[in-house]
Each structure stands twice: as structure tokens, then as C-alpha cells.
């Protein structure tokens, strides 16, 4: 785990000293947009034209933010238009790498390789785009093969691009951010992101008791309110699946396997929430989604990468989870 300072890699853990033990996530640095015609992004950001085969996505299968982009790529039918490289599940002193994986019979150990830039470390992809880059080296990264640069490393914006920019090139018509629901989706994201998506990290990476307890109590009160909401309606916003659902999904799918134990988010499990559990299974069972979930990378990444939380690196066997059981939603 580390970061780039003026283009030089430095190995260091998150600084929580200056924030009283609280984990504060930094803003992403590359914020340009792929648009249908190459025009500027929604807030005037530099535009890149949507074209088949032009873009490449760097992801970790463990990472909930990268997972959002994989789900959108899959559901919007963009697999043949946007290529992907998967980083090694382990993130240690060199950050995300393309290191070779030990031979293993488990089919979840997928191919790890930088197919585009042939780099060893993801930080070299960042310095290829900007030799003086300072900041964290995170996934996902959307890379432009034509101009050899990073378009965006912000998942919430990459999924908005995937949702619309490739439609005229033959993407599937599914719209996860329909105009009439945008305000409600934005409001839901503003609630789910700090309390749940980032809430589990605020709990897990806290280095003081008070910062941890604050995060955990906000997390579970948010989950309680979602449980209540899902007792009244099928999805988070109306009875259509929207972006808000996929953003929550990637945290929920990791919750009982990782966040309950490793991040000490253990007041309740997702399995203890009947409505959220059924909803989680329903989303998992949407065609194509299960293929984006790699529990082996998820568990091994968290339990083996964070030495200061789990110094032995031992990965728990359980819990036994089966997201393909009936979901009983929509009856
Ligand atoms: N805001 C970013 C956050 C991405 C992020 O933090 N990814 C994590 C992996 S789950 C990462 O790469 N962390 C490396 C680091 O912080 O050094 C997004 O949503 O795209």
C-alpha cells in the first residue's frame, strides 16, 4: 500500500493521525469523460469520443468501486467494446500489481496481466499518463488506448459513461440513470455512499475507538433504514433497478464474507436482514451479474493485504453463502 509523490512511488499506509483516527477517502484525480460525440462531460470536463475498442479498464475483482464498472460493462453489453485487465488480488508494498499468480486449480484465480501497457505495477500506468502524478493509485482506471492516457479513475463517473455513451454503438438499452429518477438516485447515493459504501471502510480503517464506533453506528442505522425501505418497495428507488442498487450491491455482496469479520462491522450480518438478503440475492441473480463476483479475490485481498488489521494473513473458511437461493422478491 502506498502512493505516488511527484511520480515516485512511496510505500505508506493511510494517514489517520491528522484526522483523529478517522479514515478519510481522497478525491479521485482523473475526472474526464467518454461521451457519445466526444463533447465535454456534464460539468465541462474534457471529452473523449465513445468508440469500439478504444478504451481499456483496469480493475481489481476484490474492489467494490471497480466492481461497479464491471457490472455496468456486463449489463450494458460492452464486453466486446471495452477490454479489461485484472490486477493481482494482493495489494502490498508495491500497491496493485500484475505479479504472476501461483498455479492453482481454483478457477477463480483468473489471468493477471496488463494487456495494454505491459507494466508490472499499476502505479506505472499512472505515471505513463502523468509522469509527475501525486496521489493514490486506485482501481478502477479507464484508459484511452488512442491518446495513451487515463480518462478517469472515478467509478461513480465511469458507470455513468458506460450507462449512456456507447448506446449508439450497440450497447444494450438498459438505462440505470433515467432522467425522471435522477434526483432521487442522487439523494440515495448521497445517503448510501458515506454511511454504507465508505462506511465499512471508515469502520475497518479507523485507528481510534471513537472513530470506529461512530462509523459502525452510522452504518447500521443506515442498513436498518434500507431494510425498512426494501420492505415497502422492490428496489432502492422505485420499482426499477437503478444505478443506486448496483452501488449498494457491491458492498452488500462483500459484507458477510469480509466486512463483518475483517472490518468489525458485526452488529448484524446481511443474513440477519430478511429484506436486504432477498434483494441482494435478486440482484445477484440478474443475468450476468454472478460472473462479476469473485469471492476468492474478495476474501484473499482483504484478509491478506491489510497487515495492520490481520497480521497473520490467515483467510477464514466461512461463512457459507449461497446467493443463488430463491429471493422471494416481487411476489
Ligand atoms: N473514489 C474511487 C475510489 C477507488 C478506490 O479507493 N479503490 C481502492 C480499492 S477498493 C484502491 O485502489 N485503493 C488503493 C489505495 O488507496 O492506495 C472510485 O470510486 O473509483
From TrEMBL:
The keyword rRNA-binding does not apply. Transmembrane segments: none annotated. GO terms for cellular component: cytoplasm. Pfam families: GST_C_2, GST_N_2. Gene3D superfamilies: 1.20.1050.10, Glutaredoxin. The active site is at 63 (nucleophile), 201 (proton donor/acceptor). Glutathione binds at residues 96, 136-139, 154-155. PROSITE patterns: GST_CTER. The record marks 259, 302 as: Lowers pKa of active site Cys. Residues 178-305 form the GST C-terminal domain. SUPFAM superfamilies: GST C-terminal domain-like (SSF47616), Thioredoxin-like (SSF52833). It comes from the Bacteria. One of its GO terms (molecular function) is glutathione transferase activity. Keywords: Transferase. Signal peptide: none annotated. The keyword Nucleus does not apply. This is Glutathione S-transferase family protein. The lineage of its organism: Bacteria, Pseudomonadati, Pseudomonadota, Gammaproteobacteria, Alteromonadales.
Amino acid at each position: 500500500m502506498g502512493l505516488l509523490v511527484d511520480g515516485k512511488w512511496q510505500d505508506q499506509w493511510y494517514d489517520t493521525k491528522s484526522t483523529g483516527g478517522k479514515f478519510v477517502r481522497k478525491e479521485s484525480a482523473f475526472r474526464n469523460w467518454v461521451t457519445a460525440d466526444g463533447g465535454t462531460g456534464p460539468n465541462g470536463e474534457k471529452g473523449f469520443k465513445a468508440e469500439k475498442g478504444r478504451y481499456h479498464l483496469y480493475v481489481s475483482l476484490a474492489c467494490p468501486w471497480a466492481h461497479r464498472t464491471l457490472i455496468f460493462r456486463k449489463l450494458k453489453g460492452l464486453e466486446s467494446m471495452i477490454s479489461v485487465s485484472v490486477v493481482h488480488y494482493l495489494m502490498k508494498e508495491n500497491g496493485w500489481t500484475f505479479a504472476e499468480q501461483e498455479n492453482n486449480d481454483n478457477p477463480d484465480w483468473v489471468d493477471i496481466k496488463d494487456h495494454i501497457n505491459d507494466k508490472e505495477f499499476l502505479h506505472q500506468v499512472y505515471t505513463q499518463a502523468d509522469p509527475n502524478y501525486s496521489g493514490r493509485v486506485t482501481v478502477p482506471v479507464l484508459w484511452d488506448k488512442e491518446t495513451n492516457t487515463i480518462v478517469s479513475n472515478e467509478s461513480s463517473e465511469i458507470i455513468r459513461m458506460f450507462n449512456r455513451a456507447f448506446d449508439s454503438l450497440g450497447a444494450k438499452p438498459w438505462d440505470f440513470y433515467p432522467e425522471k429518477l435522477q434526483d432521487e438516485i442522487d439523494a440515495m447515493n448521497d445517503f448510501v455512499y458515506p454511511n454504507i459504501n465508505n462506511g465499512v471502510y471508515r469502520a475497518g480503517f479507523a485507528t481510534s475507538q471513537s472513530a470506529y464506533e461512530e462509523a459502525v453506528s452510522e452504518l447500521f442505522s443506515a442498513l436498518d433504514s434500507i431494510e425498512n425501505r426494501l420492505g415497502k418497495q422492490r428496489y432502492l428507488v422505485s420499482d426499477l433497478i437503478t444505478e443506486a442498487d448496483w452501488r449498494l450491491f457491491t458492498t452488500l455482496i462483500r459484507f458477510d464474507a469480509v466486512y463483518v469479520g475483517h472490518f468489525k462491522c458485526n452488529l448484524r450480518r446481511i443474513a440477519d436482514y430478511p429484506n436486504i438478503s432477498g434483494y441482494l440475492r435478486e440482484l445477484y441473480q440478474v443475468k450476468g451479474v454472478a460472473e462479476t463476483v469473485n469471492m476468492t479475490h474478495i476474501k484473499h485481498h482483504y484478509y491478506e493485504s491489510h497487515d495492520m488489521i490481520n497480521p497473520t494473513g490467515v483467510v477464514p473458511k466461512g461463512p457459507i453463502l449461497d446467493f443463488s437461493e430463491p429471493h422471494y422478491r416481487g411476489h
